[in-house]
Design a protein that fits this description.
Length: about 300
């Protein structure tokens, strides 16, 4: 935002310098120069505040889209790092457990060797039987340990495969999101309504449940005087997102063009009830001028505070 504001200040200052350096001719120009010299010129801040919103709105949209893209990339990177760290820790625990089991078996055999030596020194004759018994017990314990750790390693392998699939799905989702954002930027810069519709169709191929793309496609259809198509697209958007104010507003415009004033006014009321921004859009929309004959048209586009002020 700070870079955008500095760019706007430089643009306004260049305009001010160009206006002050333009030559004036005739007696009228001489008198205008005298009046301009007596009045102090407006500051850069005042000139920036007088700028209209469409002059800098695309920069803000582009900045927001880039920030969202960076945030999503950072989030996916954090997920990958967290999964990698968890996997490393689980492998370390498995290695430590296996080392502990190996050391235990080794110490156990040392103990058996020491006991056998003691029995041999004492002179027992059944030392072979004792050795066989100890060997069978040791084999049984080792077998149980091996089975247990095989099961653990199998679970770790399955978990690694599951997390790998999640990472691949997230990477695919990130690629799709980046492509969708690129298509939105191209659509905002495109001047041909037919080309806009092609871009919106590509977005809907990647995101079939994108209600916003359906409503913007309906807007382009209205510009091409395809009213029934626009109404069908808006109904699809409302099926996906019942609280889509943009879809209700486009329906109001479509029915206003078709001459159905009451239906258009009802859809306009629903759009305004979802968001107040459609009041101002309704005042500026040329398609809704035919609704001005309806008695409650102005009450729909006027806020309660404004109505209370006018009545007072």
């Amino acid at each position: 935002m700070r870079c955008l504001k500095v760019a706007l200040l430089l643009f306004v200052s260049s305009l001010a310098v160009a206006q002050t350096e333009a030559p004036n001719s005739g007696a009228d120009s001489f008198m205008a120069d005298g009046v301009a010299k007596q009045s102090s010129p407006p500051t850069l801040q005042e000139q920036v505040e007088q700028l209209e919103e469409p002059l800098y709105k695309p920069f803000i949209e582009r900045y927001i889209i880039d920030e969202i893209k960076v945030l999503r990339s950072e989030l996916e990177q954090q997920k990958v790092e967290m999964i990698r760290e968890i996997t490393d820790r689980e492998l370390k625990v498995a290695n430590s457990s296996i080392s502990y089991a190996t050391d235990t078996v080794t110490y156990f055999f040392y103990l058996i060797a020491a006991a056998s030596s003691i029995l041999l020194i004492v002179g027992w004759n059944s030392i072979r039987e004792i050795r066989d018994r100890v060997q069978s017990i040791a084999d049984e314990k080792v077998g149980r340990l091996v089975e247990e750790y095989e099961e653990r390693l199998e679970r770790v392998e399955k978990e690694l495969l599951r997390k790998s699939r999640i990472i691949q799905e997230n990477q695919h989702e990130l690629e799709v999101t980046n492509e969708v954002q690129t298509l939105w930027v191209k659509a905002s810069q495109e001047t041909s309504w037919e080309q806009k519709i092609r871009l919106y169709d590509r977005i809907l191929e990647l995101r079939p449940d994108n209600a916003e793309a359906l409503t913007y496609k309906a807007d382009a259809a209205l510009e091409l005087n395809q009213h029934q198509w626009a109404i069908s697209l808006c109904n699809q958007a409302l099926t996906v997102e019942p609280d889509s104010g943009h879809a209700y507003f486009q329906l109001a415009c479509a029915y206003a063009d078709l001459g159905a004033s009451r239906i258009a006014l009802d859809y306009l009321k629903q759009a305004v009830s979802i968001s107040d921004e459609y009041r101002e859009q309704g005042r500026q929309e040329q398609r809704l001028l035919s609704l001005s004959q309806e008695p409650d048209f102005m009450s729909v586009l006027t806020r309660r505070e404004e109505l209370a002020g006018s009545e007072a």
